[in-house]
Specification:
The chain is an alpha/beta fold. Helix content is 32%, strand content 19%. The chain contains 16 helices and 18 strands. The strands form four sheets. The chain has an eleven-stranded mixed beta sheet with strand order 3-2-1-4-9-18-17-16-12-10-11, sandwiched between helices. It has a three-stranded antiparallel beta sheet with strand order 13-14-15. Strand 1 and strand 2 form a beta hairpin. Helix 11 runs parallel beside helix 12. It is globular, with a radius of gyration of 21 Å.
Length: 458
């Protein structure tokens, strides 16, 4: 039986309170406070790495920055970001407890080859920290002194307001301050489903009972009125029977039934009939799992309603729903999904822009919550927008397709007995390839993937 830990953060006023505990050992609980200037400093570092427009940036400029110049564009830049986040957000006693939970006195690269099963860490972030790629955080060997951090905090608080702390980092040689050992190498990382969702009335669906039913594949639906190269255009590129993804799903079809029924896997992609009515009709056939690859729109935090997050199916503006049309297209809101009271399979993967953003809101009722409330016990989603295949190739000049690699890894994991373990193993493999100099293992993809689980679902 593996050890289970719980890491919780809560924004209270101008500070974020944190705790780490080992389930069944309350006497070993560690608590600490992350003050607002420190939180803002962490978010400033992360935002500079993500492919989301900052200020006056266009989407193309943001993608170019993230893929070619930002922290996720080089191994040293990514390790520096992982180290900074590890220093700012996880206190030294918490790192020590994590290390002790797996039976070692300290966390080092030499002890990175941990036998499965690893301890399982459930993370419940605060709204401010909802997009932190926790698994990628690097264990620090050293860092700024407590006195330096206090001074930086104080200087960041003025009569004009609070800004990000300016911390005197010693980063000339990143390998002198961290060995690059990551949280995901110490534990299997899982996101805890928000308590208000777990305890809401719901009819759960069980993977053990449904695992032999067909897999529902919703692959890059064709959004009405959108050109393939538009913001709501193709995620995966032009369908081809010879593509890596087509071959992958042909292999899947060879050993298990899938929905919709097609003569060849290439027919799964860019369907113009994949609207909400089509989705409901296939969900009525009680699939074992659902994989959605396409576009999603995050809810606007300024309005404060997570249920305004949306999926973009092939729905015209004539479709019923609470969303305002986008040209000749009506998005499918999380609120629409919850109101429809659909029966969703036990495992769902939403590989779409920021689909895992529920925790950014006080009432976490976004797309993940909609799936859980509709019956799912395990939901894989993304923390931020993933560059499309075309976008990646345009700005990097490379021929690889990391988006396809994510899709196949998540699909394989959701076929496995233990989806959480399978996904964590894949992320560790990708991170180590990246750490060892393989630039095709882009962290903009593998670091964005998270899995939310209800109870002991794996």
């Amino acid at each position: 039986m593996s050890t289970t830990l719980v890491l919780r953060f809560a924004d209270v006023g101008v500070a974020t309170y944190a705790s780490l505990r080992i389930v069944g050992q309350p006497d070993r609980t560690v608590t600490w406070v992350v003050h607002e200037p420190i939180v803002l400093a962490a978010l400033e570092e992360l935002n500079g790495a993500l492919p989301d427009p900052d200020g006056d940036e266009s989407l193309s400029e943001a993608l170019d920055r993230a893929l070619t110049r930002g922290p996720f564009a080089s191994a040293e830049g990514e390790l520096t970001l992982a180290y900074i986040l590890g220093v700012l957000l996880i206190a030294a006693p918490a790192w020590q407890l994590l290390s002790a939970s797996e039976g070692r006195s300290e966390a080092t690269r030499e002890s990175a080859s941990v036998a499965d099963p690893r301890p399982v860490l459930f993370i419940s972030p605060s709204a401010r920290l909802a997009r932190i790629p926790w698994g990628a955080l690097a264990v620090p060997l050293t860092g700024p002194s407590p006195e330096e951090l206090v001074a930086a905090r104080k200087e960041a608080v003025t009569f004009k307001g609070t800004t990000a702390a300016r911390i005197p980092w010693q980063l000339a040689d990143i390998h002198a301050v961290t060995e690059g050992f990551r949280l995901m190498e110490m534990v299997d990382v899982v996101m805890a489903v928000p308590p208000n969702i777990v305890h809401a009335p719901r009819t759960p669906s069980c993977w053990r009972e449904k695992k032999d039913a067909p897999a529902l594949l919703v692959m890059d639906p064709r959004v009405p009125g959108q050109r393939p190269d538009s913001p709501l255009g193709s995620v995966l590129g032009r369908p081809s029977a010879q593509s890596t993804l087509s071959r992958h799903f042909d292999d899947l079809r060879a050993h298990r039934p899938v929905l919709p029924e097609v003569g060849a896997a290439v027919e799964l992609f860019r369907r113009s009939d994949a609207d909400r009515g089509w989705l409901v009709s296939l969900l009525d056939r009680a699939p074992s799992r659902m994989l959605y690859v396409g576009h999603a729109s995050a809810a606007d935090r300024t309005h404060g309603y997570a249920d305004r997050a949306a999926l973009h199916l092939a729905c015209t503006s004539a479709a019923d729903g609470a969303a305002e049309p986008v040209g000749d297209h009506r998005p499918l809101l999380a609120a629409d999904l919850m109101a429809a009271q659909l029966s969703v399979p036990p495992r769902v993967a939403l590989l779409a822009c920021g689909s895992g953003g529920d925790y950014q809101f006080d009432e976490a009722t976004g797309l993940v919550a909609a799936m859980v409330l509709s019956g799912s016990e395990l939901v894989t989603a993304t923390l931020w927008s993933l560059p499309t295949t075309a976008g990646y190739r345009r700005f990097t000049g490379r021929a690889e397709d990391p988006m396809a690699q994510v899709v196949m890894a998540v699909d394989d994991a959701h076929e496995a007995d233990d989806a959480v373990l399978s996904l964590n193993r894949w992320q560790r493999e990708q991170m180590r390839r990246w750490r060892d100099g393989d630039t095709t293992a882009c962290p903009l993809y593998w670091a964005a993937v998270v899995t939310f689980a209800v109870g002991g679902a794996r």
